[in-house]
Amino acid sequence: MEGEIKNLVEVWLSILASLCYCYFLASKIPKGKLRLFAFLPIFFIFTILPFSLSYVFPIALTALFISWLGNFKLLLFAFDKGPLSSHQPPNSFIHFFLNCSLPIKIKENGKYPSPQTPQSPPNSSPKHPKLPLNWPTKVLLFAVLVGANDHKHGVQPKIVLLVYCFMVYLLIDIIFGISNGLVRATTGLELEPPSDEPYLSTSLQDFWGKRWNLMVTNLLRHTIYKPVRSISDMLLGSKLAPFPAVIATFLVSGLMHELFLYYIIRVSPTWELTWYFVLHGACMVVELALKRMFSSKFQLHWAVSTPLTVGFVVATALWLFFPPLLRSGAVDRALEECKVLLDFAMLALSKAKGVITH
Question: What is the pTM of this model?
Answer without folding.
Answer: 0.88
